[in-house]
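Hi everyone,

Forwarding the result from last night's run.
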Amino acid sequence: MRRVAWIGLLVACAAGRAWAAPVELQLTNAVPAGKKPFVTVTASEAVASVQLDIERLEDHKAFHAKAGPLKAGDKAELAIGDGKAGRAHWKGKLLVRAASGESSSEVTFESTTGAPGGGLKIGYDRAHLDLERGRLQFTVSRPAATAQLVVVTDDGEAQAGVVRALAGEKPGAWIAIDWKPTSKPVLRLELTVKTADGDAVIARLVPWSVAIPHEEVVFASGESAIQPTEEKKLDASYQKIVDAVDKARKHEPGLEVKVYVAGHTDTVGGADDNRKLSQARARAIAKWFHDRGLPLPLYFAGFGEDQLKVKTADNVDEARNRRADYVVGVEEPQSGRGRFQPLR
């Protein structure tokens, strides 16, 4: 099982204000002895510079860190402090200079250097996320007190956070937190876990995936060539793909996505022949999108009669089973994992 540990705490702004574009901030606040806490800055647009001027409240010692210029999607780390062991409280300002204007915000947070157990970490794998049911399972590296989950849809709307107590949960054990599913595509999940002694970490998961509704392309019997009369359908699908990606990237700049085209047939003919034919047709559609100029990686797969939309007996002519699925997402669709090939 592949387990990914997330780290980072969103920096809190003065008066409860959320930090907005042009940068996103995350703080790694629990670090081993000798290391410095650091803020990871991700630019959502081009910025000339990002500057952090901060004071450690315990001894009023000032620290400064600066990065830039940064292009949209670039990341930079701003290390603070001197590696002094123990818990510290910080207060200061973050100044961002961007083409859209100069912005400044007060930031306050707490850090632990030489944290017990190496700090708090969260573990996760994709098999423990069920978007349809509305359930995320995760692990923690050491005992924790609470978890809060915020679900953000691809129109930027955030649901109210769901909170659950973690007292008694063992480190390394899978812990479930549920939310009310929405008909809107989930763009990202933000999971905040806190310990009783004040350590906190935010895990950001971006599982965005959208099935593109479209009019089916009609192929000649046994053929995979796209007829000129069918290109209007593909042109409309092309625009829907572009619109879906643009919508998500407004709220998750730099989102890296791929397009997956899956071909399916009915049960008329041999299973092997149907699989080959559906793959050839899926590839033809993917290539059409590529040649049309779609600026996204394209993948295709042929499932033949393996995933019938309408269950039928063998050798039944069912138009609803002769179809293609277009999915745009950050990862391969679960239903076809391991079967998609890149268009070359």
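Confidence is low (pLDDT under 50) at residues 1-21.

Cheers,
N.
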